[in-house]
User: Which sequence fits this backbone?
């Protein structure tokens, strides 16, 4: 079976690339072009014909024979004009070929993975690169995709396997003296491996935040200007603004690029004593959201008295914002030196640039971005933490009577390291990973 799909973004454009991969790709190329001979890896100009011998379009096609192709199977790429009509009819013609069907999302890359052209870590990094919006996201994706990163994980796994072989040799050729020595001889090696892994985890502490965006919650009493502020930051209407207290009852999220960082802002329900069941649920959601936030913007109307209960939310990862400075009437805020409030008018766009700088600096101060990071997903971190856990369990066993259990701990450590790159059975992960790909990738 061969698969095909549009490899470029859908929509009108000067150029569209349609990819075919599989054992019948070469046959499809000959059928569409009427070429009798096709040179590999050469750009060939041709007319493309449908099954009635009518011209679909004129363009370029390139044949990549296996295994030297993206997927590892025979691949043909057709470069045509990017009009809706051309693309639609070209795909329709491809579907008329026997054993040729439309690809599923990420199926080309999944085929490359199954053909060992790339590993699981590189497949994940590829989708991260495609989805990257910031320079930080781009560089992180490329770093993890690099062959050197795969080597780091492979070397760690090989080191543990080598130690495991010592333990298994003792099990197979039991000798009490040799058995005691295997614990002593490998203790320092295992401690060093654990130290290396802990350092990888430390450097990748904020990698998930870079990939998914830093979470900033805007919180405060009703009518303090939370919705106006998120609209101002987004430069568009994201949230409904009203003088009626309790207008925002659900979490409203928008993602904004600030100084090269992806920030996910959440407009939350205003705090107040309310009899409305829906509003109470909104306030409850706000409290849950605050626990997961990387930063809190605590906003007050500077013409009104400060709510001391809400002020108690202030901590090191908070910025106090006094809104509506365009209104001259104001209560004096006595704790300026402690809280260092940022004064703004969301309505008049006053003080917003200063607030943006403060948000960016606060994130820089609390969330280190390490250029040597080689973690990009929670599952990588979890596998590394599991490896540390099982190596520690192994180190706690010091008697020859526990040699079988110690060896099993090391096997589990090897398995967890293998899961990162995809050496062990990770079939259950594949559908979850590749559903995020576009159809043509």
Assistant:
């Amino acid at each position: 079976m061969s698969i095909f799909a549009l490899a470029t973004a859908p929509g009108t454009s000067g150029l569209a690339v349609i990819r075919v991969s599989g054992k019948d790709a070469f046959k499809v190329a000959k059928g569409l072009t009427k070429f009798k001979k096709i040179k590999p890896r050469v750009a060939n100009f041709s007319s493309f014909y449908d099954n009635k011998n009518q011209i679909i379009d004129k363009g370029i096609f390139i044949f990549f024979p296996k295994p030297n192709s993206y997927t590892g199977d025979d691949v043909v790429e057709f470069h045509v004009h990017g009009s809706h009509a051309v693309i639609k009819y070209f795909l329709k013609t491809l579907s008329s070929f026997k054993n040729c069907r439309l690809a599923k999302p990420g199926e080309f890359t999944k085929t490359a993975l199954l053909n060992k052209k790339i590993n699981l870590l590189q497949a994940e990094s590829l989708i991260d690169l495609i989805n990257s919006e910031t320079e930080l996201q781009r560089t992180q994706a490329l770093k993890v995709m690099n062959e050197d990163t795969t080597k780091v994980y492979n070397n760690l796994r090989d080191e543990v396997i080598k130690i495991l072989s010592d333990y298994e040799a003792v099990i197979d050729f039991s000798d009490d003296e040799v058995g005691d020595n295997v614990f002593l001889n490998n203790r320092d090696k295992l401690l060093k491996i654990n130290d290396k892994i802990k350092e990888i985890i430390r450097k990748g502490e904020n990698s998930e935040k870079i990939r998914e965006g830093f979470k900033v919650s805007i919180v405060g009493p009703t009518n303090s200007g939370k919705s106006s502020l998120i609209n101002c930051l987004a430069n568009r209407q994201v949230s409904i603004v009203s003088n009626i207290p309790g207008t925002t009852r659900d979490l409203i999220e928008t993602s904004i690029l600030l100084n090269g960082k992806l920030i996910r802002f959440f407009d939350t329900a205003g705090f107040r004593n309310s009899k409305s069941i829906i509003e109470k649920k909104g306030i409850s959601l706000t409290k849950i959201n605050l626990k997961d936030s990387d930063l809190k913007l605590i906003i007050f109307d500077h013409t009104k008295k400060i709510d001391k209960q809400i002020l108690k939310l202030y901590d090191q990862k908070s910025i106090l914002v006094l809104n509506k400075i365009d209104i001259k009437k104001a209560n004096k805020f006595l704790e300026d030196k402690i809280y260092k409030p940022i004064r703004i008018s969301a309505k008049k766009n006053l003080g917003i640039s200063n607030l943006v700088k403060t948000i960016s600096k606060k994130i820089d101060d609390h969330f280190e971005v390490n250029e040597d990071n080689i973690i990009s997903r929670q599952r990588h971190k979890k596998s590394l933490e599991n490896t540390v856990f099982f190596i520690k369990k192994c180190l706690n066993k010091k008697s020859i009577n526990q040699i079988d259990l110690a060896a099993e701990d090391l096997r589990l450590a090897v398995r967890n390291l293998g899961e990162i790159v995809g050496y062990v059975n990770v079939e259950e992960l594949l559908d979850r990973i590749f559903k995020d790909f576009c159809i043509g990738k």
User: Anything to note?
Assistant: The domain at 2-107 is CATH 3.30.1360.120 (Gyrase A; domain 2). The two ends are 17 Å apart (CA to CA). The longest strand covers residues 55-64. Residues 240-249 have pLDDT under 50 and may be disordered.
